[in-house]
Amino acid sequence: MYAKSIAAEVTPRPTRYRWFVAALFFVIYTIASADRANLGVVLPFLRKEFAMTNTEAGGLVSLFLLAYAAAQLPSAWLLSKFGVRKVFTVSMVLTSIATGLTGLAGSLASLKLCRLGLGFAEGPLPIGVTSTINNWFPSKEKGTASGIFLSAVKFGPVITPILGAAIIAAWGWREVFIWFAVPGIVLSAFCYLLVANQPSESRFVNGAELDCIADKESGAGGAGGMASSRPMPRLDKFIRVRNEQELNTTAGVFKSWNIMGCALGYCFQLGISSVLLAWIPTYLLTVKKFSIMNMGFVAAAPWVGAVAGNILGGLWPIPCSINAANPAC
Questions:
Q1: Cα–Cα distances in Å, from 50 out to 28, 54, 320?
Q2: 141 in Cβ contact with 271 (< 8 Å)
Q3: Is the pTM of this model over 0.90?
Q4: pLDDT digit string (tens) for 183-196?
Q5: Minimal CA–CA distance to 29: which of 103, 91, 113?
Q6: Could you give the domains of the chain?
Q7: Using CA atoms, how far apart are residues 88 and 127, in angstroms rounded to an integer?
Q8: Distance of alpha carbon 287 from its chain centroid, rounded?
Q9: Angle formed by the axes of helices 257-286 and 292-315, to 10°?
């Protein structure tokens, strides 16, 4: 008992700075997702100033996604070459600048250029967040951190219609983009100053937390720990859970049906959510004749459930990998 008490006194309690990092990337990506979603809120008002057909309006919405998709692969190379900290910060600043310039656009052509610029600027952000999750969290917490990240993607559309409607009612549609541009620039500075590429480079992380992140307390790594103890064996049997070999090469990633299936699923999900983001406000205002503020609240409603679902989905794997030897971690 005496030896245990001495060991407890000598061993420092792990810091939990990684959860501050999670909170920071949640807020930053909420702003980024709001920057992409605000076009749907202002679209009915924007079309009054720049005459366009439904097809042209849909094309304007799609320009962001085309540029966003095109930026993904080179973004991975940029992050590996220059580090997450630098690329993520520059990407967020450029995202905010592109957002602000959209509010200053004087023609449909300049609007298209701004949306293209927003897509290219925002492309590195999701890869930067997932890289941060991979570097900063032990395997047993990656699901929770990923749920926090994905909930930020949905939380942006929760606040955008409400704030956008209020700004439009008070000033106009252009001010939506200008106001939304400011937080991203401010938060980018916080991100650069407070989040290092690796937790070992951060002055806010002690050695005990580094051991926790490296899964040293489990002795077998996170993936093995999660595989060894399953909280829902009946569900695992129903969905035919099986062990898969680790992918060690780029070729193996491209040949994996699991990776391709996840990519296709996310592709179709993103397509559906983009349609909802772009056209629900227009439908509510032009067809249902809602007021601006009522439109804002109703357009935000579907995303509230999405936020809850992402967070709960991220928390789901937690019970199978809690380490009793180091519960403070």
A1: 31, 12, 55
A2: no
A3: no
A4: 999 999 999 999 99
A5: 91
A6: 14-220+251-321 (1.20.1250.20)
A7: 9
A8: 32
A9: 160
